[in-house]
């Protein structure tokens, strides 16, 4: 592993997907070369302008053909990521695809099929790190998107690493975050101490980790307003116009420049258009911006009942905002609507309500033909086209209403605002010149050259989780803020299930990469291990069944002869290859306990005739031998040649009742005429009453003193 770690995130939006690549120092390098300030900071995330790429359309358009999302949509983004991530770092580089608005509108089965195909494509076509598809490839809710944006804004502004330079008063040093897209809008902020205590159960617990390993926690309120994005707000606005002018074909629209005609979806209608001669109503611009503000105000739906007070709009609960300490930055539509046209082509200028409203009023009252000429001459820059200026009047009115009547941001220039000059240090003024980050609201696109994107917030969270934890430091991620619970049940870890990663600080990996045994349980390998084990079990079982009974018996007989573990010769594996004998034990009365008498070893001759001189052959004889007891003819004992001791033999001089020294039964050679067997003399099975010894557990018992041991041969 090199000194840098990389991360790849795909923002899968409704209109397209954009890939972002980020880089940071791994823990070993950051700690080795970092000073005390570095160790007390979050990892430093770097990106470049050329490290992002967007493709169209959005992945939600593949809902009916999910198998095409890889080759037709993801391929270019993946190839782009491979070009910018060093080849040797791919296995250590996590990849995420996080989908937002467009995917939220799909049916559950369609969304699931798309995500499954995305994950499969990543794993088959790339070497990027993807240990948990459920977390790395998902549709994120608006609240999560807002939280990531809050992290990104505070990371870039310095609210995390230099709190003393961002003291807003009352011990507050973080910034609020506002985001507006086409379908929804989000807000995220840390309430002041009073509100945080009052509404603790409504906050999110967020935990990050510094380079030095110490954890830092924040309590953040996040909510999303569905249907309050710019496009959805306009759709509801047009519905209101249709209701206000029933039966009319031309609907006067104060939110359009003078003379502009558009259909209900916002597309310009040129002279001679068939839609102008049709019966379907269309909109005609009147350029009356004050009237536009009045007509867009009801879209806030502030009249809705507030069940859980306080509420800002749409009846949704939101803790009270203290604008003395809560200073907000706005991105996406907040930036585009305030700066693309009215701040002279993207220049950083602080927002103030009085100036902005005057600019919009003057612009929207102009004739549409004059505005088109200015677009052609690139008065507002080459990125501003006719569609942008056509929509800007409505969007400006909606933004003003959202900010000031909805969220309650003070109107700079009209309403008095507490002087925060005491908190504006020279360093802060230098870093935030002309951006007004200590004002109640400021729209931003980039800070110090880095785009304020929620994807950056996600990567900050992940990178901080890769810093090895100090003693007792908890996992990085976010979840419900429950009193006394350090890791709530819904806690979402930064990159999957939390595990200490040894790769950054382990000396054995200094040269790069994990050991093979570590790799097996990392990334995609971890999901293969159970399948491999199951396959091996099935293979062994199949071989067992295909061998046949006779081959199994032969194999396990040979194993037993080599003193293999006892269980190998059990009935589970098909029994022994030699004839199997079963002791048939009859029930007995407790008073009639009998025991086998002590036995002595007998050296049996080999061969079918009972004679022979080969001791080796004798030692390998199969079958059972005649049990010999005391009292047997000495001639027989003397005539028995030497042979190897068998497993069931009783050592010379031992007592026959010891379970550890065998059963006192010796092997009997099976000749060519068949297996021969001798039963033990019943006279030798006498009760041991005269010795005072009782039968040991497991000894054969009989109902009468004359009952003998029955030895039965099982024939397969």
Automatic annotation (TrEMBL):
<keyword id="KW-0378">Hydrolase</keyword>
<dbReference type="Pfam" id="PF01150">
    <property type="entry name" value="GDA1_CD39"/>
</dbReference>
<dbReference type="GO" id="GO:0045134">
    <property type="term" value="F:UDP phosphatase activity"/>
</dbReference>
<dbReference type="GO" id="GO:0005794">
    <property type="term" value="C:Golgi apparatus"/>
</dbReference>
<feature type="active site" description="Proton acceptor">
    <location>
        <position position="145"/>
    </location>
</feature>
<feature type="region of interest" description="Disordered">
    <location>
        <begin position="604"/>
        <end position="716"/>
    </location>
</feature>
<feature type="compositionally biased region" description="Basic and acidic residues">
    <location>
        <begin position="679"/>
        <end position="692"/>
    </location>
</feature>
<dbReference type="GO" id="GO:0046036">
    <property type="term" value="P:CTP metabolic process"/>
</dbReference>
<dbReference type="InterPro" id="IPR000407">
    <property type="entry name" value="GDA1_CD39_NTPase"/>
</dbReference>
<keyword id="KW-0812">Transmembrane</keyword>
<keyword id="KW-1133">Transmembrane helix</keyword>
<protein>
    <submittedName>
        <fullName>Golgi apyrase</fullName>
        <ecNumber>3.6.1.5</ecNumber>
    </submittedName>
</protein>
<keyword id="KW-0067">ATP-binding</keyword>
<feature type="transmembrane region" description="Helical">
    <location>
        <begin position="529"/>
        <end position="547"/>
    </location>
</feature>
<dbReference type="GO" id="GO:0017111">
    <property type="term" value="F:ribonucleoside triphosphate phosphatase activity"/>
</dbReference>
<dbReference type="GO" id="GO:0006256">
    <property type="term" value="P:UDP catabolic process"/>
</dbReference>
<dbReference type="GO" id="GO:0004050">
    <property type="term" value="F:apyrase activity"/>
</dbReference>
<keyword id="KW-0547">Nucleotide-binding</keyword>
<dbReference type="GO" id="GO:0005524">
    <property type="term" value="F:ATP binding"/>
</dbReference>
<dbReference type="GO" id="GO:0004382">
    <property type="term" value="F:GDP phosphatase activity"/>
</dbReference>
<comment type="similarity">
    <text>Belongs to the GDA1/CD39 NTPase family.</text>
</comment>
<feature type="binding site">
    <location>
        <begin position="182"/>
        <end position="186"/>
    </location>
    <ligand>
        <name>ATP</name>
    </ligand>
</feature>
<dbReference type="GO" id="GO:0016020">
    <property type="term" value="C:membrane"/>
</dbReference>
<keyword id="KW-0472">Membrane</keyword>
């Amino acid at each position: 592993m090199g000194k840098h770690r990389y991360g790849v995130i795909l923002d899968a939006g409704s209109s397209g997907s954009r890939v972002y690549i980020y880089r940071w120092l791994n823990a070993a390098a950051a700690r080795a070369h970092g000073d005390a300030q570095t160790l007390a900071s979050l990892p430093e995330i770097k990106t470049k302008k050329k490290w992002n790429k967007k493709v169209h359309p959005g992945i939600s358009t593949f809902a009916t053909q999910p198998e095409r999302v890889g080759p037709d949509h993801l391929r270019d983004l993946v190839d782009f990521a491979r070009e910018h991530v060093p080849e040797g770092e791919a296995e250590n580089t996590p990849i995420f695809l996080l989908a937002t608005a467009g995917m939220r509108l799909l049916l559950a089965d369609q969304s699931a099929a798309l995500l499954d195909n995305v994950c499969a494509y990543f794993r088959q076509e790339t070497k990027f790190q993807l240990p948990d598809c459920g977390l790395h490839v998902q549709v994120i809710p608006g609240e999560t998107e807002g939280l990531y944006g809050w992290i990104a804004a505070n990371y870039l502004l310095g609210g995390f690493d230099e709190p003393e330079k961002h003291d807003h008063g009352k011990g507050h040093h973080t910034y609020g975050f506002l985001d507006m897209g086409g379908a929804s809008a989000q807000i995220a902020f840390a309430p002041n101490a009073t509100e945080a205590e009052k509404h603790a159960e409504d906050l999110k617990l967020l935990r990050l980790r510094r380079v030095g390993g110490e954890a830092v926690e924040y309590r953040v309120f996040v909510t999303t307003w569905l249907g309050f994005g710019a496009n959805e707000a306009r759709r509801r606005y047009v519905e209101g116009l249709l209701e206000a002018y029933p039966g009319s074909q031309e609907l006067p629209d104060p939110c359009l420049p003078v003379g502009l005609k558009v259909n209900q979806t916002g597309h310009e209608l040129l002279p001679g258009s068939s839609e102008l001669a049709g019966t379907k109503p269309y909109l005609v611009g009147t350029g009356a911006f004050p009237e536009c503000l009045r007509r867009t105000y009801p879209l806030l739906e502030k009249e809705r009942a507030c069940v859980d007070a306080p509420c800002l709009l749409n009846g949704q609960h939101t803790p009270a905002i203290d604008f003395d300490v809560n200073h907000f930055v706005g991105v996406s539509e907040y930036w585009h609507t305030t700066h693309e046209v009215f701040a002279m082509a993207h220049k950083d200028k602080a927002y103030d309500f009085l100036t902005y409203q005057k600019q919009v009023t003057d612009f929207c009252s102009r004739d549409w033909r004059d505005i088109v000429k200015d677009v052609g001459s690139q008065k507002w820059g080459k990125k501003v086209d006719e569609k942008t200026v056509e929509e800007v009047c409505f969007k400006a009115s909606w933004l003003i209403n959202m900010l000031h009547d909805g969220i309650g941001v003070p109107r700079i220039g009209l309403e008095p605002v507490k002087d925060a000059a005491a908190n504006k240090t020279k360093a802060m003024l230098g870093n935030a010149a002309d951006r007004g980050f200590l004002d109640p609201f400021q729209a931003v696109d980039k800070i110090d050259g880095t785009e304020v994107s929620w994807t950056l917030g996600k990567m900050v969270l992940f990178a901080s989780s890769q810093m090895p934890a100090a003693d007792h430091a908890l996992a990085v991620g976010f979840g419900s803020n429950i009193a006394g619970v350090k890791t709530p049940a819904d806690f979402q870890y930064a990159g999957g299930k939390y595990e200490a990663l040894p790769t950054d600080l382990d000396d054995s990996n200094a040269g790069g990469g994990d050991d093979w045994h570590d790799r097996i349980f990392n990334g995609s390998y971890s999901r293969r291990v159970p399948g491999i084990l199951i396959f091996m079990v099935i293979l062994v079982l199949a071989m067992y069944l295909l061998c046949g009974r006779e081959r199994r018996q032969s194999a396990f007989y040979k194993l037993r002869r080599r003193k293999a573990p006892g269980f190998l010769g059990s009935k589970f594996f098909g029994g022994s290859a030699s004839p199997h004998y079963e002791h048939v034990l009859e029930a007995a009365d407790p008073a009639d306990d009998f025991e086998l008498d002590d036995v002595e070893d007998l050296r049996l001759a080999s061969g079918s005739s009972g004679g022979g001189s080969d001791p080796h052959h004798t030692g390998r004889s199969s079958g059972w031998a005649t049990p010999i007891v005391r009292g047997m003819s000495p001639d027989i004992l003397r005539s028995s040649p030497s042979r190897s001791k068998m497993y069931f033999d009783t050592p010379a001089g031992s007592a026959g009742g010891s379970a550890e020294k065998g059963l006192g039964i010796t092997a009997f050679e099976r000749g060519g005429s068949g297996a021969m067997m001798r039963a033990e003399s019943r006279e030798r099975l006498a009760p041991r009453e005269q010795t005072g010894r009782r039968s040991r557990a497991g000894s054969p018992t009989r109902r009468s003193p004359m009952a003998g041991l029955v030895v039965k041969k099982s024939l397969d």
